Amino acid sequence: MSLNKVLLIGNLGRDPEVRYMPNGEAVCNFSIATSETWNDRNGQRQERTEWHNITMYRRLAEIAGQYLRKGSQVYIEGRIQSRKYQGKDGIERTAYDIVANEMKMLGSRSGGSSAEYGDGGQAGAYQQAPQQGAYQQAPAYSQEAPAAPPAAPRRQAPAAPAAPVDDIDDDIPF
Amino acid sequence: MSLNKVLLIGNLGRDPEVRYMPNGEAVCNFSIATSETWNDRNGQRQERTEWHNITMYRRLAEIAGQYLRKGSQVYIEGRIQSRKYQGKDGIERTAYDIVANEMKMLGSRSGGSSAEYGDGGQAGAYQQAPQQGAYQQAPAYSQEAPAAPPAAPRRQAPAAPAAPVDDIDDDIPF
Amino acid sequence: MSLNKVLLIGNLGRDPEVRYMPNGEAVCNFSIATSETWNDRNGQRQERTEWHNITMYRRLAEIAGQYLRKGSQVYIEGRIQSRKYQGKDGIERTAYDIVANEMKMLGSRSGGSSAEYGDGGQAGAYQQAPQQGAYQQAPAYSQEAPAAPPAAPRRQAPAAPAAPVDDIDDDIPF
Amino acid sequence: MSLNKVLLIGNLGRDPEVRYMPNGEAVCNFSIATSETWNDRNGQRQERTEWHNITMYRRLAEIAGQYLRKGSQVYIEGRIQSRKYQGKDGIERTAYDIVANEMKMLGSRSGGSSAEYGDGGQAGAYQQAPQQGAYQQAPAYSQEAPAAPPAAPRRQAPAAPAAPVDDIDDDIPF
DNA sequence: TTTT
DNA sequence: TTTT
């Protein structure tokens, strides 16, 4: 028996990217930052930011692509999974992803958005609709745009390590 | 936004009890013990056991009823949920249940059984089959008995604090 | 071996209450609400709020008493622990508390406060200072008031179940 | 605010390695395997094993070095942390470690060992002693060998990806 | 009521 | 490299 569980709350460094597998299933990639701060021995404030590559499949991927944006704060639950890839320099490397099985959108800059997906609290029947401001509630599976739809998600094939995002610091809105 | 998540590993105090809702959905109840030990200020070994009421619905309930037994060690993930009930003395009390959305069977005394259910690691598609000794693997949804089937689960109306559904006793379809 | 772990994010229903044990150790009690929402079979939005009694000891208790207020959003990590008590009607009941071992203050209405206590990320050495708005950072153990100190915490002996808080719905700021 | 929390249960692939920082603090490295299994679309049993690099500091490092061995089953709680290192080929790579803040020894093949360390359930006061078979209980901080002491931990400089401290080899104080 |  |  084993357990491989990760719980993250962080903010997206960029808009999520949604692609589709040959069989039509959606895959969504983005990365989120978590940061820890502490006082060192000299009483100096220290901060360290960690970037986590998130991967979602199917319904969760589509919801993320539809509702998450750069800067969004999100709760992610999933597992750690390594992945080999060929770098631009032709050298094999290993990337680590968090494969998500649950997501909750937290209050982003645009307001008190909150939603839950995944296994839900009530077994399969429970699917909490995304809420953004005064949006009407829509079922989580719905593809209809909410009253004030977000911009279309970017759909592209991301470079191998889904998000090294180390060059965007001055763009990050938090 | 809020989070209400519980992770438990413990042993069943009794066999699980499975009942059926009027709509045919299964409900499973059992309790598991967790214990913590520590040394007090006098270096004396101290132990404290906590009992947790677990409630499962639908597929998870059926799997639990089929494979768990008194003494089984189990990993449970779920949420805390309170429930009012009328005690035998006619006085209202509040019970706390863990409503499970995931379960992993750990090695019990009877062997290295291990299985996972719930959201799974691979989105909905992932359903780990129960394994007991050299059992063949069966899909998690399967109702067929494994090669060496466990005794039939007890099906009864438990006393109040263990019973989340108190209005369906005479609806049980068998 | 067993595991008894609870992760909560919710809002305080009232100001925390801090008391002191005969040995001088602080104890802090408050309750936080978590809520889940879902669409029922008729597409109607449903919501359910759960109240969790939180108990903290020692340093964590003092920090909570100093920085948390009614409405504060907080991340709590701890374990479930039952407790017998004598109700006002003289009848014994069982209450369930979450005994916290870690806390992070999330953004409350008053701004982007964020802090972490408990085991920290860096073993015992890691103690993240409370930040409120533009407060200077102070060590977590510090008892000094921050630049803009919150009102003194209420110190009293709470009634037995630390917070049934079922009568304050229209006061809750979220 | 952010959250970066990992919960793992797995088995050590090798004995843990303990080294000491120039300041005398212990660092322990090992890796544990988690595996997930599922049935693919053809009903074929699939398995995937993931290896996690674990890093511990100070007291936790010493306890791990003393009690864990190849094959030991362990519960680890910590956070994900990336780390740059120079590979043997001179190329920079990124490794991911789980920096542990809590550990529980689960039953290994050699018997029902069980112990808990870290923040404990009772704030700092709670330190569960390691138990191995009929060992007497000793405080977690104790350096004394238990009645039937395990073999001395290996102390060496591991290859890059498993080594978080790569500049202290000649500083080890023994 | 379990388990170590 | 572990374990089931």
TrEMBL record, chains A, B, C, D:
The record's function comment reads: Plays an important role in DNA replication, recombination and repair. Binds to ssDNA and to an array of partner proteins to recruit them to their sites of action during DNA metabolism.
Does Ribosomal protein show up as a keyword for this record?
no
Alphabetically ordered keywords of this record? DNA damage, DNA recombination, DNA repair, DNA replication, DNA-binding
| Chain span(s) of sequence motif Important for interaction with partner proteins | 169-174
Q: Which organism is it from?
A: Uruburuella testudinis
- GO molecular function terms noted in the UniProt entry: DNA binding
Q: What is the lineage of its organism?
A: Bacteria, Pseudomonadati, Pseudomonadota, Betaproteobacteria, Neisseriales
Q: Where is this region: Disordered?
A: 108-174
Which is a Pfam family this sequence falls into?
Answer: SSB
Report what the protein is called: Single-stranded DNA-binding protein
Q: What do we know about how this protein assembles, alone or with others?
A: Homotetramer.
Look up the domain of life of the source.
Bacteria
Q: Does the keyword DNA-binding apply?
A: yes
> In which residue ranges is the amino acid composition biased (Low complexity)?
124-146, 153-164
For this protein, the record's InterPro entries field holds: NA-bd_OB-fold (IPR012340), Primosome_PriB/ssb (IPR000424), ssDNA-bd (IPR011344)
